[in-house]
Amino acid sequence: MSDPTSMLPDQHPRRSLAWRVWAASTQSLAVKSEGLVVQQAGENDSAMAERCGLIDLTVLERTGFRGRQAAEHLESLDLPVPDAPNRAAVGTQGETVLRLSARELWVLSAAEDDGQHVRRMANQPLPTKDCYALYCQHSHAWLVLAGRYRAAVMAKLCGVDLRESAFPVGHIAQTSVARSNAIVVHHQWGRQPVFSLFCDSASADYLWEALLDAMAEFEGGPVGLAALV
Amino acid sequence: MKMMPCPLNGLRNISEFVYGGEVTDMPDHTTCSDREWAEYVFYTDNQIQVVTEWWLHAPSSYWFIAERHTGSDEILRTYDPSERFTERVDFEQTEDNTTTGGGSGS
Fold first, then answer.
1. Strand ranges inside A116-212, DSSP E
2. B8 occurs within a structural domain
3. High-pLDDT (> 90) share of chain A, %
4. Chain A residue numbers touching B58 (CB-CB < 8 A)
5. How is domain A62-137 classified at the architecture level of CATH?
6. Model pLDDT, residue A113
7. Rounded Cα distance, A17 and A6, in Å
8. Which of A8, B30, B39, B93 falls between 20 and 30 A from A140, CA-CA?
9. Is residue B44 part of a domain?
């Protein structure tokens, strides 16, 4: 079998929803969670990620649970459950748990692993009552905005105050971003705090373009995974 | 910009919300008349008064209840539906896979 990282994105079976818009600005690819992500976008990825960088992590593993027993189910899997809706917490294995409402929880895979913990968790039997699986893997795209100008970029696209003073790490805002619905999560992912944006899969390439347009003022652009992890 | 307080997400622009109709008590679908069911599903009072309505916060797909004055358009209160609805409503299926008891069906 040929080396997956030397393939063109359209030749890999598991690729992002927005690969067409970032394929041209990619220097090298990596395989993570059995899917293709950008390993390096350009020569100055690290400096860009420190200022404001964007990466598409849609292929990375995530899962969700809904129902009265959803919180108990996650606790039985040794994951932390945030005590209020619109809050996020990080587990001992690096997974991020999002509490989107009183009875809806998502789990994002850690930056350091290959999604195996989340995959194993998704395959665990559910409680017999009041806990249902949420298939957020394919319904949503996952874009990550990193860098010190991330709140300033979002101020151009979103009506909610996302500055550190009002929206610290561990907070979630479900709101309108560039007139498209999105979940914005402020959390530590890899080496630095980032905004993870989850939007409808059909809006992925639109939101990618809208974010890049807003980032241009801050000399931001696409970055690779190596700059974050 | 008009704002609305969402019980889950806080104060947000009204453009993030979708109107879902008045909150009214559901009649017993197995015994009510077609007229009563139509009143429940389609008709509104349309009076100048405080009304209780369903609203959806679209980015979080969260349905809640709001009390609004139809004259001033002032939103007086919003709250989670669990304050009003404490039990799940299930519809019993009949053998021919219908759920209603009345009506001619034509």
1. 132-134, 140-146, 172-177, 180-189, 192-200
2. yes
3. 72
4. 181
5. 2-Layer Sandwich (3.30)
6. 85
7. 19
8. A8
9. yes
Q: Pairing mode, if any, of strands B75-79 and B62-69?
A: antiparallel
CATH number at residue B55: 3.30.2270.10
Instruction: Give residue B70's pLDDT.
Output: 95
> Tokens representing A139?
């319904």
Among A106, A130, A174, the strongest candidate for a mutation testing the B interface, having the largest count of B CBs within 10 A, is: A174
**Mean pLDDT value of segment A215-229:** 94
Residue-range domain boundaries for chain A? 62-137
The pLDDT value given to residue A2 = 53
**Predicted-complex ipTM score:** 0.87
Is any Cβ of chain B less than 8 angstroms from the Cβ of A175?
yes
As given in the structure block, the two tokens for residue B20 are 């879902």
Tell me which residue range forms the domain holding B55.
Answer: 3-83
Q: Is the pLDDT of residue B104 over 60?
A: no
Tell me whether residues A181 and B13 touch, CB distance under 8 A.
no
Number of domains in chain B: 1
Single out the residue of A18, A56, A111, A108 nearest to residue A221, CA to CA: A56
Q: Does residue A129 carry a pLDDT above 60? A: yes
What are the angstrom distances between the C-alpha of A169 and each of A89, A151, A204, B15?
9, 12, 24, 27
User: Using the beta-carbon criterion (under 8 Å), do B59 and A101 form an inter-chain contact?
Assistant: no
With beta carbons less than 8 A apart as the criterion, state whether A9 and A56 touch. no
SS3 A155: helix
Question: Distance between CA atoms of A9 and A13, rounded to whole angstroms?
Answer: 9
Task: State both tokens at A205.
Answer: 């390439």
Question: For B65-98, how does the pLDDT look when each residue is reduced to its tens digit (9 = 90+)?
Answer: 999 999 999 999 999 999 998 887 777 776 766 6
The model's pLDDT over A5-64, given as tens digits with 9 standing for 90+, comes to 566 777 778 888 888 888 877 888 888 888 888 889 999 999 999 999 999 999 999 999
Q: How far apart are CA A140 and CA A156, in angstroms?
A: 22
